[in-house]
Amino acid sequence: MERNQPRRCTIYVVSDGGGATAEAVVDAVTVQFPGVDFTIERHPGVRTREQVLAVVQEAARNNGIIVHTIVITEIRRLLLRECRQRVIDHVDLTGPLLGQISQHVGMRPLLRPGVSRGLSDEYFRRIDAIQFTVQHDDGQGIDSLHEADIVLVGVSRSSKTPLSIYLSMRGWKVANIPIVLGVEPPAKLDQIDQTRIVALTIDKDELVRIRQHRVRSLGADEDGDYADPEKVAEELAYCRRIVRRGYPWPTVDITGKSIEEAAKEVISLVESQRLRAALSERLGVDADPWTDGGWED
């Protein structure tokens, strides 16, 4: 791959049911690769030999990855065999788990496509959270910022969007606001419940590395300010001043952490702040501002 050529990947989501399970897994995984241009091809209701061969042939032509949740035994075996013969990268999301559970409980699975536990209130709450989060990504939807359960702030490439999406898939309505050098954050940020705001920080050298990779993947000018170490240091310093001004907001250092680890910290901070605020209101005293670290000069 050429140095300045964008990284691309085509993923074929294949299911003999609706494909919602495979789509959810693919969404959760692809956000971990912000520098990659993903194309997601959805193929629900695949239950015949002809359908399998059509998907496999298309994936072979485009050097794609097949991710599937096929439960009909003969269709799953056909898909696996075709993928191996054509040397197509593929991931079986349900087959191994069906086998393990069947062996563990001593019972054969139904092997019925599209079976689920039904659409609960929790399901619809998560869908609402995902929609809200998408609509409030990167400073969008400021007028309804107060409706967010969590508001993440941080400089560019500090994992605001991947972390927001991950949290939304667990039912949290998340908004994220970029902190840009020399630009005042939106006034609305000071008007909402401050216990919902969490700042993200990252090691300067790590941020420079991430941004350099991003610039190369886009084929942009590598000599610009975006990935310049001095400018990055200025941005982080400016962000520290914004964070310390007023409340201040607690911070999560994402350096070297997985999205899952960072999400646990964010949730813990938000819930702790809410508890402190509730106790303070009950006692009729002001809470001490949270001064947890993360922004060291």
Automatic annotation (TrEMBL):
The keyword Ribosomal protein does not apply. GO terms for molecular function: ADP binding; ATP binding; phosphotransferase activity, phosphate group as acceptor; protein serine/threonine kinase activity. It comes from the Bacteria. ADP binds at residues 154-161. This is Putative pyruvate, phosphate dikinase regulatory protein. Belongs to the pyruvate, phosphate/water dikinase regulatory protein family. PDRP subfamily. NCBIfam families: PRK05339.1. Keywords: Kinase, Nucleotide-binding, Serine/threonine-protein kinase, Transferase. It catalyses: N(tele)-phospho-L-histidyl/O-phospho-L-threonyl-[pyruvate, phosphate dikinase] + phosphate + H(+) = N(tele)-phospho-L-histidyl/L-threonyl-[pyruvate, phosphate dikinase] + diphosphate; N(tele)-phospho-L-histidyl/L-threonyl-[pyruvate, phosphate dikinase] + ADP = N(tele)-phospho-L-histidyl/O-phospho-L-threonyl-[pyruvate, phosphate dikinase] + AMP + H(+). Bifunctional serine/threonine kinase and phosphorylase involved in the regulation of the pyruvate, phosphate dikinase (PPDK) by catalyzing its phosphorylation/dephosphorylation. Its EC number is 2.7.11.32, 2.7.4.27. Pfam families: Kinase-PPPase.
